[in-house]
Amino acid sequence: MPPAFSSQPAPAPVLTLISHALCPYVQRVAIALAEKGLPFERVTIDLDHKPAWFLALSPTGKVPLLRVPGPAGQDVVLFESSVICEYIEETATVVPLHPADAVQRAQHRAWMEFGSGLLGQVWKMETARDAASLEAARQALATGFARVEATLDADGPYFAGKCFGLVDAVFAPVFRYFDVFDTLTDTGVFVDCPRVRRWREALARRPSVQQAVGPDYPTRLLRFLADHQAHLLALGHKERA
User: Fold this and answer.
1) pLDDT confidence of 13, banded at 50, 70, 90?
2) What are the pLDDT digits (tens) for 83-92?
3) Is residue 175 within 8 Å of residue 203, measured between CB atoms?
4) ω into residue 39 within 30 of 0, thus cis?
5) How far, in Å, CA of 63 to CA of 89, rounded?
6) CA 237, 240, 241 angle in degrees (round to 5)?
7) Distance CA 92, CA 33 (A)
8) For this structure, is 85 an active site residue?
9) What is the mean pLDDT of residues 203-209?
């Protein structure tokens, strides 16, 4: 299904997305903005050396932040990716990314939270320094994706069928980690999940997903693994030896 981008000339950006190059929460916001056809300026910061202006804007010290036009012409800064995505959905209604039905909408929001929980296990997997910790995270992810497998639309290609939605925007950055992990070792996370594998492949082809990160994303992620002495990286070296 082709992306629902507007064919009209893009207006000048009025939104600013404050980002980090690897952050999956930033990616979901960037994907939602692209799917809505909303132009935005992207400002990328180093979270290891947070600028004073960023700390003044972010109550949590985290990305993403989205600067939006507020009342009386004053800009407002939104934080927390789920809140930002809901704001985008509510204010740019031409391309809906949530179901119209209230029950289905609530279910999708719940699966968005489930996807955020899986990101916690991805963090454990990429920062694990020994085989036991890595295996615990791998098993937790395999169990989680088995639950997703049972929920996915049978025909696809997206979470709920033919229409791309915010659940897809949440899971696409999760799958992106494995595009790099798979170059190091066979994690086996998706081995029993054919629907998830098909979904992952469909999301990887989506322009909004592809454009949510820079071309140096794999290099940056590998550098992150090295900086954290990740066992994943050690496995990759061992398997190539």
Assistant:
1) low
2) 999 999 999 9
3) yes
4) no
5) 19
6) 85
7) 9
8) no
9) 98
Are 179 and 156 in contact, with CB atoms under 8 Å apart?
no
Check whether 207 has a pLDDT greater than 50: yes
C-alpha dist (Å) from residue 140 to 112, 137, 170, 183: 17, 5, 18, 21
Cα 173 from chain centroid (whole Å): 3
pLDDT of res. 25: 98
Alpha-helical (H) ranges within 92-216 are 102-127, 131-151, 166-181, 194-204, 207-210
| 3-class SS of residue 18 | strand
The position carrying tokens 């119209």 is 100
Structure tokens at 195: 């629907």
Q: Which pair of tokens denotes residue 149?
A: 């497998």
First and final C-alpha spacing in the chain: 42
Catalytic residue (one of 23, 85, 163, 193): 23
- How far is residue 129's CA from residue 133's CA, in Å, rounded to a whole number? 7
Q: Tell me the backbone φ, ψ of residue 180, rounded to 5 degrees.
A: -85, -45
Count the residues in the chain: 241
Pairwise CA distance, residues 188 & 191, whole Å: 5
Whether the pTM exceeds 0.90: the reply is yes
Please state the φ and ψ torsions of residue 150, each to the nearest 5 degrees.
Answer: -75, -15
Alpha-carbon gap, residue 77 to 87, rounded angstroms: 12
d(CA 201, CA 194): 11
